[in-house]
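Need residues for this backbone.
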């Protein structure tokens, strides 16, 4: 493990230490700071101080913050709680953030207007007087498994298999229900359903709109056991039959029962609109049967199921006078012979009968001289390879193997870091204490939070990555990326373990495997695959132009699909094909260079759209024409005679799919121009009689004949194009401060770890795009990456992507259903898959 970066807060902030002492005086095992990472690589953590204030005059309370791991210095406050927070958890989709406290309040927060920087409480549950110690969202029944022996298989359907797993609760029609199960310190179970009809919080609204009041949800409660017992530690996992498995213990009472761990099976069923909770006691065990049987004054401090979807292995952390023990217990089937006096109870008394039962057995243990602070386990299971991360009171983090608890590596927070402007020999020592940590879902970034609410990120590498010569295995990296693609997980933590020298090989292997998939699989993952490919290109300086081309291709593909969806003619010339399919077939069969001759073979009535709708789409039509101009204007430079300018990787001018898509759109524009000429793109021409659309179609048609080696006559005509029409500058990749950037990948170990400050953009990561602009087309205005309209140099409050830095307006400009549908397509996130945040210039 190596520390990648650390984010600290501005000096001067004070903690609410007196409030903490009053709440946690009687329970030293509970900690006021928690952290958890979602499947979308967003970390949420708690702190007792306002990290944005430096004068110490902030309001007393307990704060919840979150940040995208790509821009961890940009933190966003979710809420300020009156009572100490004891539970913090994400749902599997990263949409709901659950916050529970020691006073029985359970709050669920969602994004406001799909902005990562704006969160509102929309659900509230109250269990008066109950200390919430554990909570878990209902399982949706989806589990994707990757086996190492199938990592070389190309087909996604064979490589990734859906395991048989039932949802925790079903609604009408067998649909998995959303809900939460909670456990309190008095042994009380509580469960509630999250309404499936989430109101339209994404509706664009002004900042003056009144806040929405949270919905009050009523929980169903049930005693965990026959009697209510005081518990301090609990953990929840899921079983394949849809039940919850609970392990609880009381680690504060000094008696023999303090070393006993109780296990329960909890099932939830929905009848009509009501939930029914049932709890069943399972085999329990004492720690006296383990490695610490002869040690006095031992107490349980941590319980952790190894996998959240496997109830056969339980990790137990204990505190002893000399340090700590970490023990692994397994649930094994044990056969007990039956005495002859009891054989008559069975159907076949003559046979040798045995009684089979499940018992907990001690397997391995790990001992250390300091007490345990926090424990987490890797969430992604790559075969039998799984790892456990334990943070200790001496500021060390240990990585243990799951089966043997053998320490593989460890890291210390007392290491040194360097300021971005300091000399290499000048170092600063860290003086903080780790209080919580969590691992990302793909298991390659370990996030730790100290008592001051400061963030530390470690890059983790494993032996099963099959490293050769210090390089990450290509097969392993591709398998991880494909798992993220199929499973819907964010791949940011995978990006940060790649090497720049491997990017081209990984992209080529990823593309080769994708092209071998069945047609329906490619169609389903089409957009997400190209977005992942675009993000991979963005990791190197040489890949920035390719990433820009892929961004244009994704936008072109979306516009083509959106325009085709508008074609709903009342009368069809052919019932086998629609107008869009008919147009694609005509373009593929014949290659007429004259766009007007092509229109003679098409039914213009099938492409008719309302005039008001056409006018609202003018900026998208303009962008397609501008893209065609840019492709043709740059063609001579990219096809240099010496061959020095030719580059490998994606090039939109060589993509036959992209070129044919532009041709289809040019034909549709031509026909729509007959209905409403105002919707046509506007060009600055040197001659008024120049038909730009016809010229573009002619040149693109000739380019599709041989996109890799265009003829000299075509290149000469493309060279004359800038003198005939002004080539507008398309929006280039913005300058973005982010972790997943070429600058981070070119840093050596001597430059790490980097030191950042909350709410301060680090100059050491600033990346200036050096893509050469076209002649006469440079503009300093900010362009809306979704609507393709000018926003000005300083547009005020806009949305900005946390991954690629693209801008988008907060206010809707839609006047027709078609444009509203286009805006909703990008309301939940950027075209690259990143998050929108509020940006004020």
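Answer:
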């Amino acid at each position: 493990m190596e520390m990648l970066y650390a984010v600290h807060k501005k000096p001067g902030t004070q903690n609410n230490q007196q409030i903490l002492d009053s709440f946690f005086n009687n329970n030293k095992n509970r900690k006021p700071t928690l952290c958890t990472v979602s499947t979308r690589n967003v970390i949420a953590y708690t702190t007792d101080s306002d990290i944005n204030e430096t004068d110490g005059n902030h309001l007393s309370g307990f704060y919840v913050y979150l940040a995208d791991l790509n821009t961890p210095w940009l933190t966003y406050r979710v809420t300020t709680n009156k009572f100490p927070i004891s539970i913090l958890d994400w749902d599997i989709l990263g949409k709901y953030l659950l916050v529970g406290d020691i006073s029985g309040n359970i709050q669920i927060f969602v994004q406001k207007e799909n902005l990562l920087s704006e969160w509102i409480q929309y659900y509230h549950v109250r269990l008066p007087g109950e200390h919430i110690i554990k909570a878990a969202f209902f399982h949706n029944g989806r589990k994707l498994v990757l086996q190492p022996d199938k990592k070389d298989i190309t087909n996604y359907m064979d490589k990734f298999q859906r395991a048989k797993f039932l949802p925790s609760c079903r609604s009408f029609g067998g649909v998995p229900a959303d809900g939460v199960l909670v456990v309190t310190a008095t042994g009380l179970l509580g469960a509630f359903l999250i309404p499936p009809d989430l109101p339209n919080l994404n509706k664009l609204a002004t900042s003056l709109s009144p806040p929405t009041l949270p919905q009050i949800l009523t929980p169903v409660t049930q005693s965990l056991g026959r009697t209510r017992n005081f518990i301090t530690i609990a953990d929840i996992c899921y079983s394949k039959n849809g039940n919850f498995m609970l392990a609880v213990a009381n680690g504060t009472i000094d008696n023999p029962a303090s070393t006993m761990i109780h296990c329960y099976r909890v099932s939830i069923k929905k009848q009509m609109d009501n939930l029914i909770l049932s709890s069943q006691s399972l085999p329990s065990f004492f720690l006296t049967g383990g490695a610490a049987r002869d040690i006095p004054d031992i107490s349980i401090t941590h319980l952790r199921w190894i996998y959240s979807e496997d109830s056969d292995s339980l990790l137990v952390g204990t505190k002893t006078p000399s340090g700590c023990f970490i023990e692994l217990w397994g649930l094994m089937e044990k056969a007990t012979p039956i005495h002859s006096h009891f054989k008559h109870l069975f159907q076949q008394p003559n046979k040798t009968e045995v009684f089979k039962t499940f018992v907990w057995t001690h397997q391995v243990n790990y001992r250390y001289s300091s007490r345990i602070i926090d424990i987490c386990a890797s969430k992604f299971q790559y075969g039998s390879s799984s790892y456990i991360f334990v943070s200790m009171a001496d500021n060390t983090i240990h990585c243990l193997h799951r089966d043997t608890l053998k320490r593989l590596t460890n890291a210390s927070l007392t290491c040194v870091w360097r300021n971005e402007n300091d000399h290499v020999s000048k170092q600063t020592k860290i003086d903080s204490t780790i209080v919580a940590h969590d691992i990302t879902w793909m298991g390659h970034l370990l996030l730790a939070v100290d008592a001051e609410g400061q963030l530390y990120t470690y890059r983790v590498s494993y032996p099963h990555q099959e490293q050769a010569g210090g390089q990450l295995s290509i097969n392993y990296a591709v398998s991880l990326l494909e798992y993220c693609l199929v499973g819907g997980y964010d791949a940011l933590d995978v990006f940060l373990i790649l090497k720049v020298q491997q990017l081209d090989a990984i992209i080529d292997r990823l593309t080769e495997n994708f092209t071998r998939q069945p047609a329906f699989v490619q169609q389903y993952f089409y957009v997400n695959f190209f977005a992942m490919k675009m993000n991979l290109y963005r990791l190197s300086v040489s890949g920035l132009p390719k990433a820009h081309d892929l961004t244009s291709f994704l936008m072109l593909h979306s516009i083509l699909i959106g325009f085709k969806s508008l074609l709903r003619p009342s009368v069809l010339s052919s019932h086998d094909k629609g107008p869009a399919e008919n147009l694609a077939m005509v373009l593929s069969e014949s290659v007429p260079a004259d766009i007007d001759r092509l229109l003679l073979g098409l039914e213009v009535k099938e492409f008719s759209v309302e005039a008001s709708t056409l006018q609202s789409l003018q900026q998208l039509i303009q962008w397609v024409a501008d893209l065609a101009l840019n492709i043709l204007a740059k063609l001579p430079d990219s096809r240099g005679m010496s061959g020095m300018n030719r580059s490998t990787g994606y090039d939109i001018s060589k993509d036959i799919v992209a070129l044919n898509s532009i041709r289809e759109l040019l034909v549709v524009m031509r026909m729509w121009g007959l209905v409403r000429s105002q919707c046509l793109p506007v060009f600055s021409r040197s001659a008024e009689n120049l038909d730009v659309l016809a010229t573009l179609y002619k040149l693109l048609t000739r380019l599709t004949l041989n996109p890799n080696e265009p003829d000299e006559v075509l290149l000469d005509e493309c060279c004359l194009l800038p003198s005939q029409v002004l080539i507008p500058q398309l929006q280039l990749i913005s300058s973005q401060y982010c972790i997943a950037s070429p600058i981070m990948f070119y840093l050596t170990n001597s430059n790490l770890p980097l030191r950042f400050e909350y709410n301060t953009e680090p100059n050491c990561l600033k990346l200036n795009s050096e893509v050469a602009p076209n002649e006469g087309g440079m503009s300093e205005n900010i362009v809306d990456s979704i609507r393709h309209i000018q926003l000005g140099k300083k547009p005020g409050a806009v949305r900005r992507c946390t991954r690629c830095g693209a801008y988008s307006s907060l206010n809707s400009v839609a006047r027709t259903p078609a444009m509203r549908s286009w805006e909703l397509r990008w309301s939940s996130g950027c075209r690259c898959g990143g998050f929108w945040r509020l940006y004020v210039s």
